[in-house]
Amino acid sequence: MKKVLFGSIVFLLLMFSGLFLLSCSELTDDSGGGGTGELVLVNVAPTSVSLSVGQTQLFSATAVYSNGTSSDVSASWSVTGDIGSIESIGLNALFTATTSGSGTVIGTYNSKSGIASVTVTGEATPEAGELVTIEVWPANVKLKVGQSTYFSAAGKDSSNEAVPIMPTWTISGDAIGILKTTSTEATLEAKSEGSAYIKVVSGEVVGTAHVTVEGYYVEITAEVDTYVDSSDGTPHGSAITLVAGRVTDPSEKIYETYIKFDVAAISASASIESDTFKVYASDTDGTSMKIGRLGESWTAAVTWESKPTIESFVSSHTFSAGSNSIGIKDLVQHWVSVVNNGLAIYKDAPAIGYVNLVSVDDTSTEERRPKLVIEYYTP
């Protein structure tokens, strides 16, 4: 009898423990809240708004969880009442009023919905000189991380005449960058991929510009450069002028220039979209030079006797005095994905010609130092 009673008690305790654990699990259930509790409701802000035809309004959605916490979420958006259209921008949505009437903006997240009421009235007849619209230029921009763009805003009345404004500027959507403003002008520095709206407000009038940031842009100054001379065993790593080519007067001399850029910060899986290799020629006879991929590592102390091999031909370029821009996309992709030993600028015998280039060691003019501009995407 005691054994039966003891077994019954153990059984009941096990059942109670299981129910307790199940209850705890349900209490911490997350319906998209990242471990913050069960999703209870979704709030849409603002909850009510009145607009005129042609005006816009940004909406946001906030998820509220069973433990009292909340977070902004990326909702699915819809409009009832045929009063306008809505477009998702990061964590926000932009509603554009198109037709007079009443309706709702609905934000849905994990089967929970929040609603905002919207009333749209017809366009009133504005007085001359009254601010009606704010035009933001450019209205649609595509950038890469590392690039910047300039915006300007202009107020207009119903006759499209200029109206002075002192607007406020904000970014709504993804945290794509830093916006620096001065009255009717602003500069955006793209820092992260995503999409957002630049919002310009003066009184009750709003102007917007859409920005998409996708991919990356970098400008790199040469890490090291030098040249070698077949007539001497001297290193030229500290020279401020690089020499490439072949001359025969008064005797034959062959010069090869080597330049290397540090691309280690770019992921090996990156896809190079475009590039520009920039060098400044201080003197040249205008003949074509070859650009090759170096097959071995080297330092600024390299001499003709210890020079690296030129592994493969990449392209030719006829240098002109001043700035020269050269595309070497496949070579840059090789540096990023395989190995980076830099490039050579040279001339094969029996051809004759030369070019003198500004070295990275010449710091007198930053714009003339060898540079590499790369635009790329990552998976």
Textual characterization of the structure:
The protein is mainly β. It folds into three domains: 39-121, Immunoglobulins (Immunoglobulin-like, Sandwich), CATH 2.60.40; 133-216, Immunoglobulins (Immunoglobulin-like, Sandwich); 222-377, Jelly Rolls (Sandwich). The chain is built from two helices and 28 strands. The chain has helices spanning 2-27, 329-337; strands at 39-45, 48-52, 56-65, 70-73, 76-80, 84-89, 92-97, 101-109, 112-121, 133-137, 140-145, 148-156, 162-163, 168-173, 177-182, 185-190, 194-202, 205-221, 224-229, 241-247, 253-260, 271-284, 288-294, 310-318, 322-326, 343-346, 353-358, 371-377. Strands 11, 14, 17, 18, 19, 20, 21, 22, 23, 24, 25, 26, 27 and 28 form a 14-stranded mixed β-sheet that branches. Strand 12 and strand 13 (162-163) form a beta hairpin. The model is unreliable at 1-34 (pLDDT under 50).
What keywords describe this structure?
379 residues; mainly beta; Immunoglobulin-like; Jelly Rolls; 3 domains; 14-stranded mixed sheet; 5-stranded antiparallel sheet; 9% helix; 53% strand; disordered N terminus
Task: Give a nutshell description of this structure.
The protein is mainly beta and 379 residues long. The chain has helices at 2-27, 329-337, and strands at residues 39-45, 48-52, 56-65, 70-73, 76-80, 84-89, 92-97, 101-109, 112-121, 133-137, 140-145, 148-156, 162-163, 168-173, 177-182, 185-190, 194-202, 205-221, 224-229, 241-247, 253-260, 271-284, 288-294, 310-318, 322-326, 343-346, 353-358, 371-377. It has two helices and 28 strands.
